[in-house]
Amino acid sequence: VFDLKKEATSQNQTSFIYATNSSGKQVEVTRLHGEENRIWLDSDDMTPYLAKAFIAIEDERFETHFGIDLKRTAAATIKWLTTGNSDFGGSTITQQLIKKVTNDQSRSWQRKVREIVRAIQLEQKMSKNQIIELYMNIIYLGENSYGVETAANTYFNKSAADLTIAECAMIGGLAQAPSSVNPFSNYEAAVKRQKLVLQRMYKNKFITKDEMNNALEEKLIFYGKKTDFNLTTLAYYKDAVMEELNNLKEIPDNYIETGGLKIWTSLDIDAQTALEKGIKYILD
To answer: Cα–Cα–Cα angle for 34, 38, 44, nearest 5°?
Structure first.
């Protein structure tokens, strides 16, 4: 049986470097990642409205089906038989998760049958909560954001634990087409999609009518595009840390940027900043 959980949890994860601030506390100063910027987060540490947003718009019978949605699959099969369209559609969240982890992009009926079998097997091995948790950590949500925690950081400068219902609906709406409904580049399309997600959440009784109306009226404040978390004065120190870590034989190649490491350093931010200012003063 395909071990999807093992494959999913081995996906690239962002690493963090910490240093000491003026209060003597260890704080994050930079993040390291490869092609996929992903911060893994357990579902217990997310607002429950986030899962509800994805379920409402992507797979409203997720809680009751056994891996495949017979109604949607039947409709997609009839479409294929009558039109010859090999884009079957009708995928449940469980099927989407399998496709994203296996990266099987073929559009054949054989791939679809294989996906259905794996979905049924997965539902027998894992709980719904485990499946939706993996899905929300795997899915691409635009702006090089893989998973909901990175997306929450990128769009709203907060954790997925602190998102409002309106913000959850915005992120949930990105699942199907993160480029075309990206709020940074196509705000109107993003809001239209968010409105649909909120309506679906209400329809499925995930939120009340008052909660839907309040969310529709909420003004979304976006953090804006970020290029790096680095403090400019720490660039040289970061390079030194990277060089030291790369020299450790215990760390596999590329694992620093993909292993989800937490790297605590002896750096004192105030002392380093003062030192670099002093050197710049002397050189000038």
So the answer is: 160
**Maximum average pLDDT range among 55-69, 74-88, 110-124:** 55-69
The structure tokens listed for 77 are 């099969």
What's the pLDDT at 232?
A: 54
Report how far residue 276's alpha carbon sits from residue 270's, in angstroms, rounded to the nearest whole number.
10
- List, for residues 15-72, the tens digit of each pLDDT value: 888 888 888 888 877 777 777 888 899 999 999 999 999 999 999 999 999 999 988 7
Rounded (10°) angle between helices 93-102 and 48-58: 90
Long-range CB contacts (within 8 A, 24+) of 41-46: 41/136, 41/137, 41/147, 41/148, 41/149, 41/159, 41/160, 41/161, 42/133, 43/129, 43/132, 43/133, 43/136, 45/159, 45/160, 45/161, 46/136, 46/148, 46/149, 46/160, 46/161
